[in-house]
């Protein structure tokens, strides 16, 4: 399995939303679903848990962010992250303007420029929708790359 990593400061909203959106949308593309999974971490993970403002807007699209086994703020040293680092294929930041915790040899594939939302539900939904769009673009890019690979037959 290869991992797509999403990083923000506290890992309690945007990076968690990106992780959830990627893992939800990748199901539409079999080669991506079988080869990739998203993870997330924060440079300064929150001790407060997932931002409660994201729970309902994410639930509307079919993601239960109250599942504390999947969605909880974590740093790069968390077992949920550290054991997967050697298989991280790409790293994206959310737009926090932070110095990210990256192991030596890693680079950031891109910054999505998604600023932290205000506290209104409309702002959270706008951020969610922007993340959905960027995530779908990323999955389509990975899918097209996979489709351009030469076919190989097993001997």
Topology (elements, then pairings):
Elements lengths: L1 E7 L5 H12 L4 H6 E7 L12 H6 L18 H4 L5 E6 L16 E2 L9 H28 L7
Parallel strand pairs: 1-2, 1-3, 3-4
Helix pairs in contact: 1-5
Structure description:
The protein is α/β, with parallel strands linked by helices. The chain has helices at 14-25, 30-35, 55-60, 79-82, 121-148, and strands at 2-8, 36-42, 88-93, 110-111. The longest helix is centred in the last third of the chain and has 28 residues, at 121-148. The mean pLDDT is 89.
Summarize the structure.
The chain has helices spanning 14-25, 30-35, 55-60, 79-82, 121-148, and strands spanning 2-8, 36-42, 88-93, 110-111. It has 155 residues and is an alpha/beta fold.
> Strands of the largest sheet, in order across it?
2-1-3-4
User: Which structural category do the helix and sheet elements fall into?
Assistant: alpha/beta
Count helical runs.
Answer: 5
The CATH homologous superfamily: Response regulator
Can you tell me the residue ranges where pLDDT is under 50 for at least 5 consecutive residues? none
What would the keywords be for this entry?
5 helices, 155 residues, Rossmann fold, four-stranded parallel β-sheet, 36% helix, globular, alpha/beta
